[in-house]
Amino acid sequence: MGQQGPLLSIDHISKEFYGNVVLNDVSFELKAGEILGLVGENGAGKTTLMHILFGMPVIADTGGFKGRICIDGQEVSFSSPFDALDAGIGMVHQEFSLIPGFTTTENIVLNRESMKPSILNDVFGDRMSILDRQDMKKRAEAAIEKLGVKLDPDMLVSEMPVGHKQFTEIAREITRSKTRILVLDEPTAVLAESEAEVLLKALRKLASLGIAIIFISHRLHEVTEVADRVVVLRDGIAIKDTPVAGVSVRDIASWMVGRSVATERVSEGEAREFGPEILSVEHLWVDMPGETVRDVSFSVRKGEILGFGGLAGQGKLGIPNGIMGLFQAGGVVRLHGKDVPLNEPRTALEIGMAFVSEDRRGVGLLLDESLKWNIAFTAMQIQGKYLKTILGGLFRIRDEAEMRKLTEEYIAMLDVKCTSPSQKAKELSGGNQQKICLAKAFAVKPDLLFVSEPTRGIDVGAKKLVLDTIHRYNRDYGTTIVMVSSELEELRSICDRIAIVDEGKIAGILPPTAELPEFGLLMSGLGANGSQEDLSA
Amino acid sequence: MSGTKSLGRFLTEYAVVIIFLLITVAAIPSSGLSIQYIVQEMITRLGRNTFLVLALLLPIYAGMGLNFGMTLGAMSGQIGLILAINFNIGGVEGLAFAALLGTAVFMGWICGVVLNKAKGREMVTGYMLAFFINGIYQLIVLYMMGFVFPIRSSAILLSRGYGIRNTLNLEIVRQSLDNFLMLRLGEYTVPVATFLVIAVLCVFVVWFKKTKLGQDMRAVGHDMSVADSAGVPVDRTRIIAIIISTVLASYGQIIFLQNMGNMATYNAHDQTSFFAVAAILVGGASVKKATIPNVLIGVILLHVLFVVTPRAGQNLFGSAMIGEYFRQFIGYGVIAFSLVLYAWRARKDAAWSREGLRGSSSGAVPAAAAAGGEGSAK
Amino acid sequence: MRSAKQFVTDFGWPRIIIFIFLVLLFVAAPFFRVRIDASISDVLNRFGQNGLFVLAMVPMIQAGCGLNFGLSLGIIAGLIGSTLSVQFGLLGVFGFFGAVGLSVPFAVFFGWLYGLLLNKVKGEEMTIAMYVGFASVMFMCIMWLILPFNGPTMIWGYAGKGLRTTITIEGFYRHFLNDFLAVRIGDSFVFPTGMLLFVGFCAFLMWLFLRTKTGTAMTAVGSNPDYARASGISADKMRTISVIISTVLGAAGIIVYQQSYGFIQLYTAPLAMPFAAVAAILIGGASVNKASMVNVLVGAFLFQGLLTMTPSVINSALQTDISEVVRIIVSNGIIIYALTRKTKVTK
Question: Does the pLDDT of residue B348 top 80, yes or no?
């Protein structure tokens, strides 16, 4: 490639969302033909950085960013992803952006089809041109050739294995004649081992053709295998920018999760006594889209707080959703030694489990109804509470007064900011909505409570309140809690044990006081064999 | 896919056609009509109705379902004919005048804009929009023509001095297209010119699908969000699909009415979309997939049934009304059945493709799974 | 000020315009020698006739099944009940309640089947409901011709079989509810106490039902099916219940309508009835996925008011019969308006 200036330079970029700093003075450079591994935990700022690079409207809508992006030394500013495409940046997203009913060729050249002018062009413009299917196929084949993979240009995407879809997507980005920079966001997440290897080979081939690649992956061994250089983001800061040569996976893992400040344990030094086993799970599988659980076994003892961590998409969210019957699941689950029938949400609630969903607005709340409804509904439906009889026992209707009393109790207990119990749930802030979700679960007085991503999308102050509430509830009522979270720090702050989920399986279970690199390694698909022994800690 | 499964899929795919074929074949003998009579009727009705049914194709390609809003096109065509009569433009020229008036483009644009605001429930919205525009049509034709808009020919006005008569005599354009080139084939008469116009439209549809716009329409029809992220102007493409459909429907209605020879000013368009939609579904089309053969088969099957049922009802039950009700029942029933079958199958397909993922090595492809379903619109 | 603005956006301009229009019609009426008392009496009567149809929209909207364009199924069940009642020669109170009683089993059965069907086609409910309704009406047309009814007032005299298009219920249960405790003031004002009481009673039952455990669950299913499922509610079951209730109300509704109108209308008469009910509840302020008792009462009153007042006032003012066109534009316009409003903003 010779000695030349950087193709892309990210120059002192900072970004904050409503006072919350997500990126702090990030700088790095990318040369033509170079593969850059970009790694970091969830929330480290990878996505935001890519949004800035692509000129996503969400960035401008939230006040823009500080710093400069230069291509070939020229400062660029994109107002939409299409500008970025024009400037030669291609992006392969985590979710496929393909049309299933179209062939490989049609998808590769989507909206950039080869055309032959027709007689109607003069009257109605270019869109009346005839497609030149032969040329389209030629271009598609050329792109496939460039990737060095086997793809049938005439196959329908809907009939393809997943790996081929991923290649089709990449082929589409490189057919743009201008594409010089390619960003791949977790391209191997959906691939089997063998497919992933083919992909890495293809990436090296592309790089040898002079295309610069930003490769985002949580599989650190892939990063060390394919990248020339690695940039580690942590809490919005580019903590490390170094050539890959001589760097081990363990090094990257510790850079990724390392904290300068020690974690503040809420209950340092407290002696913890647990009761007998309350929940045991054997060989659980859950078919939750994007969070597939393949084979998970664990047990929880009464009064314990068990944490589930791991990166997004690895299956940790599938565990509570599967046990609570919200997604198709299989395996054996026992509560108090008795089998729990799966796929029946009602039974799961009736036998004393409750769930605070990670999808607060989608599953957790009735946004258009009052707080009273939101809190009392499950208890009313499952346990027949908050009903009164009228007309001499002819009808049983809602006891609005009781519901109000209950709601006021929780509003006081959890310090919910609202105007009245009759306010609609959609009018509350994220943190207060989360408290309502907790109140709903508390109202059924469960023996075992699942809490999924309790602090997602809420501000720092509210985070602490929510965590304290969960912690206090465990201490005050002895309720067993299984908490799932992407944020390792919050798991470490209140859990008694933390299980890390990777690729649908438990990679290992660690005490909250374990060294950070240990967690990092487990998350990176390199779980040390034998850590399963910690299971019954 | 296993053998029984593909047989099952074949049967559900063609269930409507098969059931219809059986009913029709069973009804022909009991009607006592001669085959010659039925064949001649079919030739006439193919010429009369095919164009209207073809107008439904483009919105189906664009993923907007069955365009119940085609009635707007029918009304535009009628306005064109009223004005042709008013200016006393007869023959094929009169038809051309009605066709080129351009009301349909405007109507199609309105329909497209409204349907873009009701994504996901285009069909019911299109249906209600047809009712709504029917009110506007009546307001204009029944109250404003001759009152606000000057009408030259007093013969077409109601005796009160404004508003068009309930029945309009289309004598000057009557069958002008059909008779333009009428061929006698043995005992049958074939309106060659009409069939030529239909053939040209078929060629246009085939050609159109090969254009960039046609490809964009397919992309939008398959997956709006992917098409949008690839830079295809989704809303605009959908509006164009509806405009073309509306314009074609207006031509179709003009062809239909010139064959009938007179026009029920306020009712002629009432059942246009019902007959057209029933025909295309009987031909084996679905909400997402339709072909030119679907149209031709559908028109023939539906109309054979329509011709024979009143007579069959008379002969079997001693009441022509039973046949009349029966054919309407069949028409509505076919539409309901096809819609149910389609909606049910779309859910089934989504479930199937998810099942394929379960426990396999693939993790997160919800988008592809959900969008699966129908194959390409050929 | 903010709340006034909020009110306007929530309620929507079309409804406000319709309301103002109706008020203007009442104000203008005396100038065109239209009797106010007769008009009000007429509006009240039609309100009672159609109230149950509008009420029938509520459960399905609340359960998330959309607007019940297939209300004709309930109407058909009511027609079966009423023709059987006349056939059996039930009179007066037995005639009316006999018709209702005979129609309920049919309505429950039809509603159950219809509910199962709608559960299989989530997302396409409205179009399918419409065509299922049409097809059923046409099927019943054939049935009316061939079912072995033989009451002499019911069948065609010349053919000796087949039901008539309209069957009089004079002497059976005509005005059974209308005349119950009716208050007559002057010679052109009648307050149909019994009918309004009956409609009010049904509305009260619905109000109670929406407050029971099942009613609450149903509303939750319509509001957020995933939330309901996570709380152990079967969405399909709730939806089926809502469809059955809607169908039963449709059946009772047509019988109330008949006793006031005086005739049983068969054959294609039920085809257009659902549209009027849909338009009415939308005019009352309901959306495709939220409806309340207030929407029912306001909607039925506004819509029937419009139907009564436009012909009498507009036609005498402009000396034309333009009111029918006004009705078409207003009622279908409001349906389009509701269908094109974004309903999933809070998800």
Answer: no
Judging contacts by C-beta atoms under 8 Å, the chain C residues touching residue B136 are 329
Size of the A and B interface in Cβ pairs below 8 Å:
115
Of A157-171, A249-263, A288-302, C53-67, which gets the smallest average pLDDT? A249-263
Instruction: Tell me: do A445 and A315 sit in the same domain.
Output: yes
Residue A281 and residue A171 share a domain: no
H or E element in which residue C203 lies? helix C193-209
B260 exposure class (CB count in 10 Å sphere: 0-12, 13-18, 19+): middle
Q: Decide: helix, strand or coil at residue B119.
A: coil
Is B115 a residue whose pLDDT tops 90? Answer: yes
The β-bridge relationship of strands C183-185 and C189-191 is antiparallel
Coil, strand, or helix at residue C286?
A: coil
- Report residues of chain C scoring pLDDT below 70: 1-4, 7-8, 10-11, 342-347
Token digits of residue B286: 């679905």
Name the band, by pLDDT with cuts 50, 70 and 90, for residue A460: low
Could you tell me if A289 and A314 are in contact, meaning their C-beta atoms sit under 8 angstroms apart?
no
- Residue from the list B222, B354, B367 with its beta carbon closest to the beta carbon of A102: B222
Q: Global pTM?
A: 0.83
Q: How far is A136 from chain B (nearest CA, A)?
A: 12
Q: How far, rounded to the nearest angstrom, does the alpha carbon of residue C267 sit from its chain's CA centroid?
A: 18
pLDDT per residue as tens digits for the range C223-241: 888 899 898 899 999 999 9
Q: How many CB atoms lie within 10 A of CB B61?
A: 24
Show residues of chain C in contact with A392, CB under 8 Å: none
Pull the structure tokens for residue B258.
């010139």
Residue of B nearest to C132 (CA): B336
The pair phi, psi for residue C58, each rounded to 5°, is -60, -55
Task: Establish if A25 belongs to a structural domain.
Answer: no
Most confident of A87-96, B125-134, C265-274: B125-134
Tokens (6 digits) for C307: 């139907």
Chains in contact with C via at least 3 Cβ–Cβ pairs below 8 Å = A, B
**Residue ranges covered by each domain of chain B:** 37-308
CA distance B377 to B356: 24
Q: Match domain B37-308 to its CATH number in 1.10.3470, 1.10.1060, 1.10.10, 2.40.50.
A: 1.10.3470
Q: At what angle do helices C235-261 and C92-120 cross, to 10 degrees?
A: 150
CATH at residue A490? 3.40.50.300
ipTM: 0.84
- Cβ–Cβ of A381/C229 closer than 8 Å? no
Q: Distance between CA A468 and CA C77 in Å, rounded?
A: 59
Average pLDDT over residues B150-173: 85
Contact A398 C223 (CB under 8 A): no
Contact A345 C229 (CB under 8 A): yes
The tokens for B285 are 């089309």
Of B135, B143, B333, the CB nearest to C332: B135
Residues A438 and A328 in one domain: yes
Note whether B343 and B335 are within 8 A (CB).
Answer: no
Is C236 exposed, middle or buried, given 0-12, 13-18 or 19+ CB atoms closer than 10 A? Answer: middle
The residue segments making up the domain with residue A132 are 95-179
Per-window interface: A 357-386 vs B, CB < 8 A = none
* C-alpha dihedral sign at A96, A97, A102, A105: negative
Q: How far is C215 from chain A (nearest CA, A)?
A: 9
Q: Contacts of residue C290 in chain A, CB cutoff 8 Å?
A: 368
**Tally of CB atoms within 10 A around B113:** 14
Separation between Cα atoms, residue B215 and residue B202, nearest integer Å? 17
Q: Given the structure tokens 């068009």, which residue do they identify?
A: B164
At A173-183, the pLDDT tens digits run 888 777 889 99
CB atoms < 10 A from the CB of B293, how many?
Answer: 12
